[in-house]
Amino acid sequence: MSNAIIVVCLLLSGVVSFADVNMDAPIDVYIEHSDPNHEQIILNAMKYWEKHRSVSFNIVENVYDADIVVRWTDDINGKGEFGGRGGYVIEDTSRKEIVLEYFDNGLKWWLYGKRTLKTVAIHEFGHALGLQDTNKLGDVMNPKSIRIPSKTTLKIIEFLLPTLSFFMLVFIVRHYLSYLRAKRERYELERFMKE
Ligand SMILES: [Zn+2]
Asked: pTM for the whole thing?
């Protein structure tokens, strides 16, 4: 019997239930180490819930002590909640695992944006705290309120931006050179007039 079937059987029999985070005690969170920028955004997302719900979080260094685990993936493989992107939550019998899409500090990260990661993280933390998706306009738990550029859009912009930057640079250099030439011509003309 596969593990999944065993878990389903145990759940049906009531022996095991999915971990429900105890909201009264501080919630232990383990954040997988990555870029400090990314980690700071997660801390900000947690602050959002501390402000809007009476919960408090405690960062732990050992994954086995955690009620909620935050993990990163650079290949979310269409599993994200937002058009296959962004993030999702894995319900485990012992803890909840938030998986978030990770970009390194390159152009893609800049395009994806800290703001997007923060709203995605707030949304996924909401699920980890037991909230469901809503369709309320502007609500953090409304998955439609989060827009993530598609992989194709990111690829096109990533290709276009350096090309455009190159042409801009050529344009600026050409203008600067013609400015220098005009300046020299004026200087020579003035000198000629004085003579
Ligand atoms: Zn959701």
From this structure: 0.73
Q: Which domain holds residue 115?
A: 17-147
183 C-alpha to ligand 1 centroid (Å): 62
Amino acid at 67: D
96 CA to middle of ligand 1, Å? 14
DSSP one-letter string for 51-92: HHSS--EEE-SSGGG-SEEEEEES--TT-BTBTBBSEEEEE-
pLDDT tens, N- to C-terminus, the chain (195 residues): 555 555 444 444 444 455 677 777 899 999 999 989 899 999 999 999 999 998 999 999 999 999 999 999 988 889 999 988 899 999 887 899 999 999 887 777 777 888 899 999 999 999 999 999 999 998 999 999 888 877 788 778 878 877 888 888 899 999 999 999 988 988 888 888 887
Q: Is residue 9 part of a domain?
A: no
